[in-house]
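agent: user wants the structure for Transcription factor domain-containing protein from Cercospora beticola. delegating to structure tool.
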Amino acid sequence: MLYTHQNTAMGHPGIAHAYFPSNCRAPADIDDDNLHTDTSDDALESLSTTGGPTQMTYLLKKFRLYDICTDICEHVLCKSCGHLAQIRRLDGAIQREQRSWDTQFFAIARTEQQLAPHHRAHVNILRSYAHHLTLLLHQQIILRTSDAANDEDVLRWSSVRCLDAAMSILHVHAYVQNVPELQPYQWYNHGLGSFHAFHATVVLVMMCQKGLHQNRKYAIGPALRDCHARFAGMGHLSPFCAKAAPLLQMLVAQFETAGQMIDHGSEPNRRLQGSLNLHQGSGTSDAQRHTASSEFENNAREDSGVAEVQNLLNHDPPVVNDENILDWNELLAEIQPQQWVSPAVFPLEQWFNVSNNER
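agent: tool returned. relaying tokens verbatim.
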């Protein structure tokens, strides 16, 4: 587990599996107080399958997500063209993990507010990471060239999954930032949480540039602007946010420009030009039609706080001019998909320097 954690932080989640194979079992999902020297394996198993979250729940579920991340790296990101069957399989694995959290974290507590603060923080960190994995898995379809996106059913399915995941990441980022009980966990937003949020904004803007989800602009725009405001406010505490905030401002300007083009009847750039190194290839012709319930839309109906739309609308959109527009196609063309796995391997410094040169 130590090797897995270290290598995942370095952006290489599969190394522990390849070089340090082990057949030992994972720790039991129980509290320390329930551990006794004479406790049988059957008793441990029974304790692990009953009740709510324990002191070990977050760690065990996070490592299951690490395993899924390893599979995504090996079977999708490292292939010249990720097979649709693998993408479906891994998407299902992510959703099963998400359902397992609801089963355990809310076995006793009926609402998130009834959870202890550390469990509230943990379940939201798990959510953000799972949604980040969803973006890693599906953005390879969304950002492909035209030859790889011929199947409109698959494109529609992946675009909905990316929309839900990206908006949910921004919601978690805002939630952790704004809830008073979670202030001790701001270290997460100062680091990995903001990297996930930055990834989400890039995917949202690129989808809108391609003309996808134009009917969701009323929610996407405020969420992007509010995310930029949070990054700007955390710059003195977070080196990542300090460098990413100017890039986010340009991304929001790009989003506003794409929206203005569509509002005035212009055709947006639906296909990113150049070689994106994002698994170009032919689409799968026998794909079945997918239907995906929108988690973001469901949450919006159930929770008026999702995306904090009323609060977000108070932010003025950035002024759109040529100085705020970067050639994101060129930047994306130089990045490998594996570099989105971790901030440790993401070329933020390169992007930051390019943005400074453009000013």
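agent: one observation worth passing along. The chain has a mean pLDDT of 73.
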